[in-house]
Amino acid sequence: MRLVILGGGESGVGTAILGKKKGYEVFVSDFGKIKGNYKEILLLNGISWEEEKHTEELILNAAVVMKSPGIPDKSPIVKKLQERGIPVISEIEFAAPFTKAIIIGITGSNGKTTTTMLTHHLLKSAGLNVGLGGNIGKSFAWQIADNKYDSYVLELSSFQLDGIINFKPHIAIITNISPDHLDRYEYKYENYIDSKFRLTMNQTEDDYLIYDADDEAISNWFKTHTTKAKLIPFSLTKIFSEGAYIKNNKMEIKISQEEFTMDTDHIALEGKHNMKNAMAATSVAKLMQIRKATIRESLSNFQGVEHRLEKVLKIQNVQYINDSKATNVNATFFALDSMNTPTVWIVGGVDKGNDYNELMSLVREKVKAIICLGVDNKKIIDVFGNVVDMMIEVSTMNDAVQMAQRLTEKGDSVLLSPACASFDLFENYEDRGNQFKQAVKNL
């Protein structure tokens, strides 16, 4: 069986290693350059590869093709494979049949990384033998090749879900849905929503779907679609006989006749959106029968996620906050909503079809100055130019941070929450966040 892998990054190399171990004839093809450390691993494992091209005669003879999530469906080589009826799947679809572990799959436009990390933290703290993968950390396929975990917590993007056929998590979470990546979905929001709900399409009556009952897109989907999975909703405003909710500053979770309560003041994560992430993760912990005392302790000591509302430093009584992971408007909405001091907001990057008007009321209320850090800032300037007293364009992170320092007074905050992708000026959102942190330390 010939397995061809498009993309020689983390998921591609992980799939190659698992494929080789399972007896496939493996070939890796990357249209860009393959990083040195990945090349070494491919060579060590005797896996053939090519870079900076896709050689059709070496690809179109595949029995199955694993496509890395970054490669769009409309790329010419993918179209040719589809025309020939060769299955093009994602890493999780390829890898899942090779493990008997319990799979917890988490998707959503925002909050999925925090929810994934928190869920993993809850299960690991309880002593479970649990892996963390998908969109973060080590490749899921690679872990299956190397390790014997009893369960996996996977963060799954819509691109990974587009490439599944039979993949089925035992527990699925949809944190929320807001317009994102619409450039990959013909600019149709409903296509993106359907993509997220692929997470539950193969679930049975023995499986669970945990979801945000306050989310409009999710509620609308349920009006015209169904899933066989048992439903566990969570909400900040509604109360359920089966599900998770907040009542009198307490998080309450009721699942199969069992109850769990905890004061929200004792939960380490701050902000309304994080209460939802905590409810989703705790629902998993309850389904996995983790002791209440362990859950309480884990929720109170969780450190949060790097580049997500990460407090960097306080300088001259000004708090600098790194929210580089906010790559869409909805994520930035949560960030601005959680600010309770006058804020200098650093925003901008590659716009994925953003509607900035959704932020208007928060900007009016909380933002004293805007620093645009992007190659093309026209849309941001058009929307907010008359709303804030000060609007400045810069092209480097150092300039952004130094300018922010000049515009702040004691008691203010500086928030990097770009609402955009980072690829115009940075390698990725981590690079952007790390440059911000370094620039703040250099002040």
Automatic annotation (TrEMBL):
Tagged with keyword Cytoplasm: yes
Keyword rRNA-binding among UniProt keywords: no
Molecular-function GO term, any one: UDP-N-acetylmuramoylalanine-D-glutamate ligase activity
Enzyme nomenclature, EC number: 6.3.2.9
Domain Mur ligase C-terminal: 307-420
Gene3D superfamilies to which the protein is assigned, alphabetical: Mur ligase, C-terminal domain, Mur-like, catalytic domain, NAD(P)-binding Rossmann-like Domain
Sequence positions that bind ATP: G108, S109, N110, G111, K112, T113, T114
Annotated compartments: Cytoplasm
Keyword vocabulary terms for this entry: ATP-binding, Cell cycle, Cell division, Cell shape, Cell wall biogenesis/degradation, Cytoplasm, Ligase, Nucleotide-binding, Peptidoglycan synthesis
Enzyme class, spelled out: ligase
Protein's job: Cell wall formation. Catalyzes the addition of glutamate to the nucleotide precursor UDP-N-acetylmuramoyl-L-alanine (UMA).
Family the UniProt entry places it in: Belongs to the MurCDEF family.
Listed name of the protein: UDP-N-acetylmuramoylalanine--D-glutamate ligase
Gene source species: Flavobacterium fryxellicola
Gene, per the UniProt record: murD
